[in-house]
Fold each of these.
Amino acid sequence: MAQIFPKSANAVAKASIFAVLFLVAAGGFALWRLANSGYVTRQGIILEQPVPFSHDHHVAQIGIDCRYCHTAVESQASAGIPPTQTCMNCHNQLWTNAALLEPIRASLREGKPIQWNRVNDLPDFVYFNHSIHVAKGVACTTCHGPVDKMPLMYQGAPLTMKWCLDCHRDPVKNLRPRSEVANVFWQPPADLAAQQAIWAKAHNVQSKVSCSTCHR
Amino acid sequence: MTELAPSRTDSSPAGDCHAEWKKGGAEATGLDLAAAREKLATRRGPAYWRSLEELSEAPEFGELLDREFPRFAAEWPDGVSRRNFLQLAAASLGLAGLTACTRQPIEKIVPWLKQPEQVLPGKPLHFATSMTLSGVAIGLLVESHGGRPTKIEGNPDHPASLGGTDAVSQASVLGLYDPDRSQHAARLGRIGSWNDFSNELAAALRAQDALGGSGLRLLTGPTTSPTEARLIGELRSRFPQAQWHRWDPLADAGRRHALAAALGVPLEARFDLASADVILALESDFLTSGPGAVRYAHDFASRRRVAEGSAAMNRLYAAESSPSPTGSVADHRLRLRPSAIPRAVQALAAHLGVAGVSASPPESPALDEATARWIAAVATDLAAHPGRALVVAGETLPAAVHVLVAAIHEKLGASGATVLYTAPLEAEPVDPLASLAELLADLQAGKVDLLLISGVNPVYDAPADLEVARILRESRGHRFHHGLYDDETAEYCHWHLPAAHYLESWGDARAYDGTASLVQPLIEPLYSGKTLSEILAAMLGRGGESAYDLLRETWASGHTALSAALSDDAFRKLLHDGLSAGSATPATVPALVSVTAVAAAASAIAALPAPSENDLELALRPDPSVLDGRFANNGWLQELPKPITKLTWDNAVLLSPRTAERLGVHGEQVVEITTTEGRKASGPVWILPGQADGVATVHLGYGRTRAGKVANEIGFSAYVLQTASSRWGSTSITVRKTGDQVKLATTQGHHAIDWMREESEQAAVRAVVRQASLAEYRANPNFAHGEGHAAGGLDTSVSFHPGFEYKGYAWGMAIDLNSCTGCNACVVACQAENNIPVVGKDQVARGREMHWIRIDRYFQGDIDAPAGIASQPIVCMQCEQAPCEVVCPVAATTHSTEGLNDMVYNRCVGTRYCANNCPYKVRRFNFLLYQDWETEQFKLQRNPDVTVRSRGVMEKCTYCVQRINRVRLAADRDQVQVADGEIRTACQQACPTRAIHFGNLNDVSSDVVAMKKNSRNYSLLEELGTRPRTTYLAMVKNPNPELAA
Amino acid sequence: MSLAPADHLIPKPFGTPSEVPVIAPGHSPASVTDKISSVVFGRMPLWFYAGMAVMFGGVMMLLAALTKLVFVGIGIWGNNNPVGWGFDIINFVWWIGIGHAGTLISAILLLLNQEWRTSINRFAEAMTLFAVACALIFPLFHTGRPWLAIYWLLPYPNTMAIWPNFRSPLIWDVFAVSTYGAVSLLFWFIGLLPDLASFRDRTKKAWQKRTYGALSMGWRGSARHWHNYESAYLLLAGLSTPLVLSVHSVVSFDFAVGQVPGWHATIFPPYFVAGAVFAGFAMVLTLMIPLRKFFGLQDFITMKHMDNMGKVMLVTGLIVGYGYLVEIFTAWYSGNIYEWYMMRNRVFGPYRWIWMSLILCNVLAIQPLWFARARKSIAALWIISMFVNFGMWFERFVIIPTSLHRDFLPGSWGMYYPTRWDFATFFGTIGLFMALMFLFVRVLPSIAMFEMKTLTTDARVKGGSHG
């Protein structure tokens, strides 16, 4: 009887078993990487902004405190984006004609607020509260990354639920003295772990992992 | 200001999975009122209908098109949502396997230009204001998010509220955003402007100058506003001949007339429930309707919180034709025809030996034996409590009854004690009916050149025989209409001008006790509405002046007797408080009731027609939810299950089971009512246990034609049955089956009498509502426990597993069934606080209403003549051992470390397993896209602290976890404990009777722990071992031993 | 070849094959193959295509219903509060139940060495697969957000650092049903190999040769092949035997674990399994009888098969009936007011007519099976099997909506009314099931040819009981 298939068919058949196994594994791995990639989490992606504001310049070089602009951070859920007025406090003296700053002046002139693109943007079903994190001694840079080294702002952390939980399950390891939360130049002491235990006790830091801690 | 509130701009609801989860309001919408207004022009109803017609080939669109509430009951998500859904499906399927189903869209963040003080992103502010109903104010605190009023609370300092509210004021915030409110001035239906309006008005007025205003007529609702009174006064001085008419479909001058007749001077009666030991309510629902109801309910309940060794409990008798919340909490409830009530009162007066009333007037037929016995017992009880007894006669009763009641009060020494007589609150009080009749006469006589109608809708809600519509049409003069809606009356006027909602207005008014209350706006008028004061100013040639200036002027110039000139600071304080303390009208000591008046009243009563047993009587009453129909276009109120009947979206002809049997009609059958005057109306029958036999009660406020998309053409108008002579009913009507059937949407009972019987019997068997008489309670304080109850006193805390130890807070709730009147305030408060959608009649009929609070109603005893009616609010019990948590496959509902049964909407995949396994059935599922993603205005109302749920997701009460978190975080920030009473759930806050107690179970000194220690405390279905965090305090009635037999 | 490896493992067949043979006399291995493969290679009568068209119409209806469901929501169905589950879960349980006959017949009867199974096992297994396919539609599409449910119910590492809730019976379902589906598929496919090979060798068309060739995975019937085949087949039989019990036990946990009166009962697992076998055999009969007639397979599916299946139906049916009795007894004996009310509500409540039809179909209708005359009458068997198909569906209705619509708090009671879309979905799955059946009959051997050969007389003559 004539052969329907070449001899190689057997080999192919056997190989296909392993091929399938491999493809499944590889596919899973690829998806896992994708889910954690900056493409999905937006970590490290620089967004176009109406004004190329440099945190590097204002924070690291001039040394303006985070809270000078983000005034609500210690009292409210949202840290707050500075009103145009805040920019003009300085820039009605400095670089008054700089082309870069034209949008700011325009905003004040036309009474239209500047529309920034949100860089650190949590899903709308997540209720994050800045004030409590700051009060417990979680520093700005712990979640926002090395802001002082960002000429253009980008998201410093993946901001995935896993990432949140990593800290919420064991917050102590991310603590600082409350006084230092906004200090981008802070150097951890040698006996950091021991100190953190003390701060944790002092500020009654708890691991909060109930769903309603963040979702309502 | 609001333009610049910090906010994310909206990205299409489902452009990505996450965006399904838009928070309400500013968080979700680029809150730009200007843009919103522009959109409204195009984004309103018509667009919706267009998108429907596209699909109308499919059969079920027939049904859909004539559904009452299409915008909400969107069985078909409209175009946009469908498109988004495609994207979503594509996105999620495409990326299936990823945990984050897709990337976030880039969102904008918009700062202020200049940051105002106190206004911080995400921080709600509260402002004191007042809402008026029939001119009488209730003080409110309104929560504002980024300049958007989102939630109404009671003003704790205001005597009419003391922090409580009613369903209507809770729902009024939705009325503010109602897209059906008229949005521009219109001349003969064509868009006009405020300027054209005021110019034309001014021109018309110039003509009147010569005539001294003899052709000028003003028709408004009753007002207590000093400012409006002042301006009208000024108008009078400019036009001495002008006439000011008043109309109010709710008000009846009967009581005032009576008092005037009996006591010589026009007076107002107000009650002190706190000091009343024995109360008799005659056809009166004083606990939930009428001015001061919220305060009355509060004071009443303060006398019913029995605990071991607590003070004496009050006793309430109620004689009424149709069961009301007041009747349901009464210790003795007598079902009585409206026509029998005057004779009952007469008998009562006779028993009490009121001078001028003969014991058994020959000419009036005697009461039946049971009633007579009841009245006798009540009389004895009232007489036994001199100075601490009270009789509340309903507005709808004839003047003669009120005269007798006044006399009874005097006899009982109640005047000045439980009944306080004061000067009328209303400026220039008149009898609205007479006043309207005069106006109509003048109109017909052609005496009216210029008529301004403001805030009233007589074409719809005046007695039909006045023929307001015809007279307006035929009258020659110039007619201006000013109101929230381009309504039935506006249709007959040349000009319509949108009115400003009270949340957009500056103004003032007086509370039920005369306390001067301030009305301050929370937001700029959305639809360029104007206040009455501004129009009056315009008529005085001061068109430029804002309502604020006018208000300030009143209070600065000492125009009002209430205060001397106020400095700016003092005025600011006034605004902050929302009322001028101590401005309540003083009680006057009235003259003695004139015996002649009493005698006259007695004979008047004797002369009243006395229908026989077989006559069918008609009782016309305001609807419990939409009142006279002025709130008909409010979706929250329409969907609110009415107390006792549990009907939604409709009015009906309420009949007692026996009467229905006698007439051979069943529930939902349409009958045609014909009054003796030959007026006809047809509506579906609803069989209601507890209804007096031989009485058909019909609620007003339905069958509107120009109210808006929500209310148009639902229910039927009962005003067509009204005549000036018989506004509140008719003593003999005939009903005829038309053969039609109408589906009524109810949340309980399912329109079958035997179903209701089954329900109530089982409720009794299962001891769902536990109850005892005061005597039994004193004898056995533990009656709510142990043998005889399903639980059989078993200890459900016993378990093989060591229970979780709650170290920090442990939230819990206790609901006192003895205080609950079933008034629905909590239901609406919850809906407003938690962004709960309205689903529409069709969906309610399918058993898919979304309210997180369900008020169960059970009839006790014989269903034909129930011994009692119990209301039981059911919310999520936050079970310690929650059956829902075990079965959720994706862990979307879990237990928090503070004992809450968390519900994570964004994790839920919607298997509905949790709802099936919930023994209390408190979980609600979004079977369709119920939430309105389209209407800009409704986005403004939403609470940004609560996720807006989308289709396919389970939701339920969470003890207002957003409120808990806000307070707990603040306390944690300052490293202090949350103080007791600092966190108040929306329902607790709204409750006028303080029936709901919430707090930390780990705080032994907390109010809720005290309640749970009360021996009346029991948990529902405790034998299931779910160990609910929400428990109930059993009901204790205080029956009169004489009648107990 | 020989089933020898198993011979010493398994009990001797109880009783010798009765006088009625499981294959008509006079058949040779060749004639068997001719007859059976003729169904595939012969020309099909018109009614076949007509029926197929109708059933594919059903599939289209299913697709339409599901599309509307996904785009509009569960609201198009009758489900509501308090009745969160309606047709969706009823149909799921019903289909899964039907799926049971296949494995039971193939695996257990194989292990018990019941020869008569051979002519029906292939068919029953196919039925199992298709039923499971239909069943699987519901757990996914009854969710509010299937586009998430489709992967959130699976445990896998994710950026939310959160796992499914392993305490939930719905998660157990996912594993139970998928395992069952997978094993059944393998079992069925392995069984097909020799026949696929003989098709490969019989067919004339090149593309058919290639297709059957690829499917038969190079089967040449060598001694080694047969040897491996035997052991693989036995192993799978052993594997799938416990599944027959496990799957429906797990499905029954969906209810037994809940605390709804009428669900919360320890009797559920055995009672569901018996019900499943009952339903399965009924469905096999329902389909086998016409098939046998239209394709003239009376020689292979003889009265003996009918007789035996009738007996199995009777036995399982009686077990189910006993289940009903026990439910009533425990409801009363427990002294639990909710349980007792639930039972009264079933019998006298608004849905009493469904309970009555249930008793009629599942208890009364099967009683004739006590008598050989009924078991030997094709018509009677078929009618009874139809009764049982309906009856088992009613049973699920009684268990799910009737228990839910009146549970603990009277204030939350409600009614459940299915909509046209509920029916469209249900009938749609029936269409899918039948359509797959038609395809199967047309392209694959619906009776295991090589096993039938072992029953032919000349095979028996050749000493070893197998050919």
Note: The CA atoms of residues 79 and 151 of chain A lie 20 Å apart.
Amino acid sequence: MTRIGFGLVVCVLMILVGLLLVPMDAGAKTVYIGGTMSLTGPYAEDSAAILAAFQDYVKYVNETKRMAPWRKETWPADITVELLWRDDELKPAKALSIYEELKAKGMLVYRISGSPIALALKDRLKQDGFGATSMATGPYLLTPPGTIFTYYPIYTDDLAAVADWYKAKWKESRKPRVAYLTSDNAMGRSIEIPEMEAYLKKEGYDFAGTQYVPLIPTSPPTTQLMWLKEKGVDLAFGIMVNPGSQPTVKEMVRLGMGPYQPYKMTFACGTPSHLPVFAAAMGTLGDGFVVAGGFPPWDELVPGVKFMTEAQKKYHPDKWAAHSQYMGGMLEAMIQLEAIRLAMEKTPLEKLKPADVLQNGFYKIANLDTGGISSTPITYGPAKIEGVDAVRVDQLQKGKVVKQGVYPCRHLYKH
Amino acid sequence: MGRGTFQENYGQDMAIFRTKQEWGTLLAFLILLFICPLFLGDRVLTIMTMIGIAAISVLGLNILTGYCGQISIGHVGFMAVGAYTSAILTATLGWPFLAALPAAGLAAGLAGLLFGLPSLKIRGFYLIMATIAAHFIIIWSVLQFRGLTGGPDGMPVPKPQIGFLVFNSKASYYYLVMVIACLAAYGAVNITRTRAGRAFVAIRDNDLAAEVMGVNLWTYKLQAFFIGCVYAGVAGSLLVHYYGFASVDEFPFMDSVWYLGMLIVGGMGSIAGAILGAVSLKLLDELVTIMGPVLSAAVAAQAAASLALVTRGLVIILFLIFEPRGLAHLWRIIEAYYRLWPFSREEAE
């Protein structure tokens, strides 16, 4: 009988799942934002911060009916904003069913949690006419441009900005030697395009080659770093998340490599390495590390940072989300709701379809003032999915994030 | 099989379906399976399509691991071989899907033969390590042949087309997957009834005894690898055609472990077990995905989301402890209990 009881429990559970799969009708005056999150896996920390920002922004809009403190546009008083999210574990198969579930629930916009999800959903989103914001921003979003929009530069533009910044500082008569030291996954390898190498050569760099580091290294990347040393590399750059860039820089310091170490070499990453997070974890040990395309530090005096600080103090004073991707999440929430707001100017909410939000919302976003959270105000269009036109470059100096400047997006990737 | 039905000859003993009741159940199941798109939404169809693809792959793993006892944790790597073969043949060379699908199975099968060679010398833990290596070698190769596979950027894959039929809607793809899954299950059942199938079981139970009895280990172990990987290749091909995109990120190593988990939960060495395992773990996945945001009201969102990983692991452990022969065995017990009802009840009391 115990086994029969066990069997019945299994049957009941399977029926329960079946019932949960039946879609519920969306409320008449409710708008959903959000989408898929990767709360488990390599982007867990980033996604948790993004989720916190989405939650805070939804509360702010529902309470104040404003889009942001520095903006005059308001949100309709009779429409409630709700957040819908699911954890996809960064698995395309799971993201697919989540997408269908949230679409059935009446979502008009979507979000992408990482490169694997972007690759799996890109064509489907375009086919369904769904506009989506994305935490991942590789060249694959441009082949050809779909309906996934980013709010920080694509990785190759990040690195072009670093190249511009480094070249301006270069004093020696010889050519600076450059190499890629990048994550061994779709995100990290997406910088290996001929246009990037051609740009580096045009800028007067000598290209040495590429070394890969696992997305989350399980051992220090000593051999890769020794290779850079042997090749006489002056500037190494790549795309890594913080769990990759932090141990890499630690090992660099141990091997005496860095701008303030015996072997002079600068290491730069594009966002999603986050310098404020890196600074908090590494302190002065990580001095000299450069990040391009990042968000402002929490002490920068811009309206966006002030708004986010106040929102966190108000909605969860005892649980401060210090991760920079909180800013990314806030941007995504703002963009998603702005797209819906713009679309509602043309079509009433009751008749609104995802394709309307794409055509009359996302594509109509022009110079969206983000209060200084993004490098520049955000503009989208059918072939313009990159959002920003400039890249912010920051360097860690004496344990603090120091802004080095803002460089134009080179739009290297030709699609 | 109902009460009072006895096997009177070998033919009856070997038959998959014998009684009218069994044929009726099969027919009802097939009708239900094929009318599903008429009343189910896109989401459920997507889940069922993914279950179908997983079931094909697990059926292959079941032949290799469940029947022949050759533990493979590189199964997803072989799916990748099939996936990229199909993607290259259809997208780059313009082959029709009907030709690309068997080619994908064949390519994965050949890869299985290659990586199955060590199984002749090693077994157990060492074979597990060899199959893990197979996964990483395959993924590394896909990344290196950038011109052919698109490397880390992946490559777009066209929707399958058979004659004038284009499988570009969720319902049509569901039908495609379910037809192939049914054929795969039928094929797997028949394989287990052949000389090879019996040899697989003999090797699994005691390879030394099997060899002494005249079973050629060399031939049959490689056959098991080939057949298991053909299934994986077909599943991989269906997966990338469904996504419309092939990328190495679609074939993570951990999925191989979960496929093995599906086999444990469903029941190793049972065709029904392979299917039940794929269905139950995929549904469990959906349950915990839905529960994550609900639970996040009480605990941190990350902790709630991690529930999926914990639950899956826990379910596998619980099955290993309480029902190591899986859901298929559990089903057989329930079936037997009610077949003899009410006498079984009295006996239990």
Note: The mean pLDDT of chain B is 89.
